[in-house]
Design brief:
Structural class: alpha+beta
Distance between the termini: 59 Å
Number of helices: 7
Helix content: 25-40%
Radius of gyration: 20 Å
Order of helices and strands: HHHHHHEEEEEEEEEEEEH
Largest sheet: 6 strands, antiparallel, barrel
Length: 291
């Protein structure tokens, strides 16, 4: 039998005759639980969960795993997978990557709509400014790009106002950081957000590439609208994208995601999207303490 620590069925909490959809649901449930935990997950747990899902969701790999288990061969991560997994697991624990774990280059496989929505649901929220009289001013959407760090388009903030980000059913206090020069977006420091950040794509999508716009409902629920890149206007090192389909109607500040679930642009709220550089997760200065 496989060692208990590497028993993939036990890791996912499914029986050995579980159907593919049961394996997917179990993986999504455990991944969501990890995101809800206040403390970063144990890197080994992250690696084992992903390896268990990758193995049992693939018919050929699952058959080989089952055969090895029946033969009494202990299942261990191969050396390459172990080191890659540990490195990515540490990155996740530090808030530098998202689940499910995937390569971040242009050859990355596409994610399912469910995977993309799951990642966006805990990373995208609605921003409000609340003044001393209790008046609420909507400022658009923001999304997590690092642990306790969100991005949104820069907007005038009413004086003597507190900034609140609603992510799901939670209201999280935030402070506005310094704008990224020439890019038009600002950082929000929200240490209590607890969201898993979205990865940023290394380059803009191509014309006709599929993309996903994120929308946030009145109760904080996140939905996706799929579209395609219709036109790209180059502006210096960046670009402005125009989309076709419902994705073009995304609310201001919403992240535009590629087929791997990575952020490629921020919505202007006018059917146009400004690309986000990979440096956005670290290049926008954090807010200073105090007001």
């Amino acid at each position: 039998m496989a060692q208990m620590g590497n028993d993939y069925y036990r890791i996912l909490g499914v029986t050995r005759n579980a159907r593919p959809e049961e394996i997917r649901r179990a993986f999504d449930r455990l991944r969501a639980q990890m995101r809800e935990e206040a403390a970063p997950p144990d890197p080994r747990r992250v690696v084992l969960l992903q390896d268990a899902y990758d193995t049992l969701s693939d018919e050929a790999r699952r058959a080989a795993y089952d055969q090895a288990e029946r033969a009494g061969v202990p299942r261990m991560l191969n050396r390459r997978g172990m080191w890659i997994g540990i490195a990515v697991g540490i990155a996740v624990a530090l808030g530098l990557a998202t689940l499910p774990l995937r390569h971040a280059d242009d050859g990355a496989p596409s994610r399912s709509d469910t995977e993309i929505l799951s990642a966006a649901s805990v990373a995208v929220g609605r921003v409000h400014a609340i003044d001393l009289s209790g008046r609420v001013t909507p400022l658009g959407l923001a999304f997590a790009v690092g642990q306790g760090r969100l991005l949104m388009p820069c907007a005038p903030i009413p004086p003597n106002s507190e900034i609140v980000v609603r992510i799901g059913a939670r209201d999280v206090p935030a402070r506005v950081g310094t704008a990224s020069q020439g890019d038009g977006y600002c950082a929000l420091d929200a240490p209590d957000a607890g969201s898993w950040p979205l990865a940023i794509a290394p380059s803009p999508p191509k014309v006709d590439a599929p993309v996903y716009a994120t929308k946030v409902g009145p109760a904080g629920e996140v939905t996706l609208a799929r579209g395609n890149v219709r036109r790209i206007e180059r502006h210096g090192a960046g670009a402005v994208l125009e989309l076709s389909g419902d994705a073009a109607l995304e609310e201001r500040g919403g992240p535009l995601l590629d087929a791997q679930g990575r952020v490629v642009a921020i919505s202007s709220g006018e059917g146009r999207f400004t690309t986000v550089s990979a440096a956005a997760s670290s290049g926008v200065p954090r807010p200073k303490k105090g007001r």
